[in-house]
């Protein structure tokens, strides 16, 4: 890209210089003083001569023009180099960002259930087949209703919308179908996150008062199994104001119990994996 721009600039400069020289030659031949510079020669023929001073001035002007063009080319080369460097930096930044995004996506990836990963979690093949079939039927009906809503008249559209709302309310939950323990094993065996870990504790929070530390893995909140961040959020929104809840955590391989007031714990969490057998 850089070499192409420089070559183009040199070609333009050469064309510009040739035009300048032709213009100056024409001006010297047709200038206002050309009639007074004519000298008589043999056979009454006339020839036009150019003063040495004019030639020297032309050469000086040409040299000045070349120096100006070279200076402009140098400036453009610097700009091209700078732009190329900036483009390389932007590509490097984009690549690093994509790598980080890919890493984060893989860490929090959600794997669609299939017979193999359900069987690996200890689910009987006939039960896995039944769950997957009903989930597939429901998914297809949802797509079908969405297409009908786009093409239907207003009256029919309202009917399809109501059916779609009812279908979404009755969405098949794999966790509900399997139960907490089997679903926990399914998440772990399929390589998905199945726990939340404390990454930091907020100053003055109930978690700090209770003794939470970064690295603690929350197992239970008020006897409810915690497998994801939505679980802990839902659990902390329950309970009466002023009451306490028991929280089970895993710290350095040992299970501990902590009592906290109901409500926000005051911790930052990140997803992690844990073998349910621990």
Automatic annotation (TrEMBL):
Residues 42-51 have a biased composition (Polar residues). Residues 26-51 are annotated as: Disordered. Residues 59-86 form a coiled coil. The keyword Coiled coil applies. It holds the Pfam family PDZ_2. The keyword Coiled coil applies. SMART domains: PDZ. Keywords: Coiled coil. Residues 184-253 form the PDZ domain. This is PDZ domain-containing protein. It comes from hydrothermal vent metagenome.
